[in-house]
Amino acid sequence: MNDRQKLATVILALASLASGAAIAQDKGASIKGEKERCYGISLAGQNDCAAGAGTSCAGTSKVSYQGNAWKYVAKGTCSSIKTPTGMGSLKPI
To answer: How far apart are CA 70 and CA 84, in angstroms?
Structure first.
């Protein structure tokens, strides 16, 4: 196999990988479904938003399971999420 053939093979392989990743991302986005805010379940710095005084938004909670910080979860699952401090809540704790 000459250099041009090797280069063409590598380019084809990379294009195949890129298109497969794009298809996987599209499929994942389409099956996510409805979400709801669940308070008191996020770990420190991993909230999606609303982390209270001294914080601005996503990723700014200071402690794990902070009652006024929320994370998006699949609709209907929040109140079944158990943490060391209790269950998830649809309202700030």
So the answer is: 16
Indicate the burial class of 4 (C-beta count within 10 angstroms; 0-12, 13-18, 19 or more): exposed
DSSP labels, 11-41:
HHHHHHHHHHHHHHHHHHHHT---EEEEET-
In the block, residue with structure tokens 């298809």: 23
Cα(5)–Cα(46) distance, rounded to whole angstroms? 47
| Tokens found for residue 41 | 């379940």
31-83 pLDDT tens trace:
468 999 999 999 998 988 766 665 567 888 888 999 888 999 999 999 999 99
At 13-34, the pLDDT tens digits run 555 555 444 444 443 343 468 9
The residue ranges of every structural domain in the chain are 1-32, 33-93
